[in-house]
UniProtKB/TrEMBL annotation:
Protein name: Probable 5-dehydro-4-deoxyglucarate dehydratase
EC number: 4.2.1.41
Keywords from the UniProt entry: Lyase
SMART domains xrefs: DHDPS
Pfam families: DHDPS
Gene Ontology biological-process annotations: D-glucarate catabolic process
Family classification: Belongs to the DapA family.
Example GO molecular function: 4-hydroxy-tetrahydrodipicolinate synthase activity
Species assigned in the record: Nocardiopsis dassonvillei (strain ATCC 23218 / DSM 43111 / CIP 107115 / JCM 7437 / KCTC 9190 / NBRC 14626 / NCTC 10488 / NRRL B-5397 / IMRU 509) (Actinomadura dassonvillei)
Catalytic activities: 5-dehydro-4-deoxy-D-glucarate + H(+) = 2,5-dioxopentanoate + CO2 + H2O
Binding locations of pyruvate: T62
InterPro entries per record: Aldolase_TIM, DapA-like, Dehydro-deoxyglucarate_dehyd
Length: 321
């Protein structure tokens, strides 16, 4: 495992950010005509940064990477790099098949990203050897540190991850599956130093369990629309405040997941719809989702808003204790 890129301290900076705070996965704002909205993105990033995330991951799953063209992806990464100003690392998504993933990686590097999150290949599952070669091709072409993302058709065996960890530039591994048995075997298979984090769709539900196997860091989709709730949970978890984490799980996160599971694509579209209702509070209207996603129906949005109000109230009460 070795470093790639212009910042040899990046793995250490990421590790420190993962220890002290939640990882932010901002939304990608679109105007009503569907075009990328850079001013709204800057305002959204302002609100994300004010909550003190450990790193900002741009154009990934929550940021609708799957619907972005190369040019607007580059604009989004460049906007984030400019606004973040080096205060925390900026990690950009890259994905699809190998040739397109390489192109996205090159655009991210040219836009100033610090590292890449390598999303699962499009549509088809590959062999373990194929996953190694896919990662190698992107890492070599990008010239940036790479975090590999396990999800959907990209499932890594321990022996495979051990091979991938030796590819120059591979610095981390994000798990979006939630199989703790598999994850423990993966953690034990690689040399100390590879950065692991929990990236399941609502990572807070499994945060305790991941921490127990040596993976305390996690990303939070909730941070995109309610960083107050996400950071309240993070700090309670780090403090060992079981009463607070239980209250947040029961009062917000578990009912949120039940609602999220009631619609296809709600892990993104529900998040974005609720963020739009908070436009005044977060300083930006992040706009609609792009097809094939669509906005949740009125009943589900009303339920989401009730949960949001309850979660914000609970986070505020915990902060006053």
């Amino acid at each position: 495992m070795s470093d790639v890129g212009t910042d040899p301290d990046l793995p250490a900076r990421l590790a420190e950010g993962m220890r002290r705070s939640v990882l932010s996965f901002p939304l990608t704002p679109f105007a009503e005509d569907g075009s990328f909205a850079p001013e709204a993105f800057e305002a959204h990033l302002e609100h994300q940064l004010a909550a003190g995330p450990g790193a900002v991951f741009v154009g990934c799953g929550t940021g609708e990477f799957f619907s972005l063209g190369l040019d607007e992806f580059g604009d989004a990464v460049a906007t984030a790099v400019r606004r973040v100003g080096g205060s925390v690392p900026v990690v950009a998504g890259a994905g699809h098949g190998t040739p397109l993933a390489v192109e996205f990686a090159r655009v991210a590097r040219e836009a100033g990203a610090d590292a890449l999150l390598l999303l699962p290949p499009y549509l088809i599952g590959g062999t373990q050897t194929g996953l190694v070669e896919h990662t190698r091709a992107v890492a070599e072409a990008a010239g940036l540190p790479v975090i590999v993302y396990q999800r959907a058709q990209a499932l890594y065996e321990p022996e495979t991850l051990a091979r991938i960890a030796r590819i120059p530039g591979v610095i981390g591994f994000k798990d979006g599956i939630g199989d703790l048995d598999r994850m423990q075997r993966l953690v034990r298979a690689v040399p100390e130093g590879l950065l692991f984090f929990n990236g399941t769709p609502t990572a807070e539900l499994q945060a305790r369990s991941y921490a127990a196997i040596g993976v305390p860091a996690y990303s939070s989709a909730v941070h995109a629309f309610a960083p107050e709730i996400a950071t309240a949970f993070f700090h309670a978890l780090r403090a060992g405040d079981t009463a607070a984490t239980d209250a947040l799980l029961d009062g917000f996160f578990i009912p949120w997941v039940r609602l999220r599971d009631r619609g296809p694509g709600y892990s993104v579209s529900l998040v974005k719809a609720v963020a739009r209702t908070r436009a005044a509070a977060i300083g930006a209207d992040v706009g609609p989702v792009r097809a094939p996603l669509s906005a949740p129906g009125p009943a589900h949005l009303e339920e989401a808003e009730r949960l949001l109000d309850a979660g914000l109230d609970l986070a505020a009460r915990l902060a006053r204790r």
